[in-house]
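TODO from last week: model Aryl-sulfate sulfotransferase.
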Amino acid sequence: MTTPYHPPRKYSVRIEGHRTSISLEPIFWDLLRAAAARSNIAVNTLVAAIDAERIRSETPPGLAGAIRIWLVTHELVSRHD
């Protein structure tokens, strides 16, 4: 088993036709890919949905932080359903 402790890496995504990069630890990137696969959508589509949700919040975090928060809350909700 490899260690989950790894510094963030840059990943390229496309949101509404615009390319951007996000810095995420590989474990969060793997969780993001798995969540997208479970929903049968592309990672870019999921990232765009998370981005839109974070922008509507009262105090929007950065995109990478929003992805981490979404993954943690999504996984907690999924486990309780």
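Done. Residues 2 and 33 are 18 Å apart (CA to CA).
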